Structure prediction request, 285 residues.
Amino acid sequence: MQPLSIDAQTAIDLERYPILPELGDDHRALMSRIHAEIDRDGCCVLKQFLTSEAIARLVVEGDATAQYGFHNSALTNAYFGDDDDSLPVAHPRRRFYPRSNAFIPGDAFGEDSLLRTIYSWEPFTGFIKAALREDNFYPYADPLADVVINMAHEGNGFPWHFDTNNYTVTLAIQNAEVGGEFEYCPKIRTSTDENYDVVQNVLDDLHDGVTTLTLEPGDLQIFKGRYSLHRVKPLYGKRPRYVGIFSYAEIPDMVGHPRRVKTLYGKVLPIHYERQGLRADNLLD
Ligand SMILES: [Fe+2]
Prediction:
């Protein structure tokens, strides 16, 4: 790979997105807009967050590291839970769909990676923390899961689900030739009401409250998926879909549980055993 010729500050379109607090009123206006969108929809998309030069570099990084992608597939319901045969067959908890994709792990992105350079830029972390209004917020210390690329090809899919983590920060890098739109139903459940009837309607394509987002390369998405059912629509064509995922934790030094790390990345590092027991993470889902 070519040496890195741009840094985070030039990769991010700072004129369009004044993410630095020293930019004063412009910065405050941006943060107000983000907070309002997150409060309303649990979702905020910053279109063209990155420059076209930066996007081109990230595509090169995706292509160069695709060989390290670890493929995963499973049948899953929207809750990542087990079947329950005491419920009717049409119940959302009994509806299982194939899920498959690959994660290119964080250790594929070294110091010469722009994706890692953006993730490691402290003002970027500060911006995401402020956007989410989280008090305890640190870059994830897991060298495999801190910054990854989710890679999906035609035939792969990510069906309707709720996240188990509080938020997800993703960067669109490359789309498939056709498909891959992000669909979600804002706040369809609450912490006390699963709203199964409406969830069932979504699974049956009978719900008219689905929002569809076409995320283009360079778009940054901040999404709270615990209460908003969401999916990625099927992909078509030869070109793989690349989405960068930035992960954070509520405490410093935390890494993933060895068993989960092995499932997602196909390998485990010594640090995962050494730090086993530290929790409060924000894993992928
Ligand atoms: Fe999700």
User: Anything to note?
Assistant: The mean pLDDT is 94.
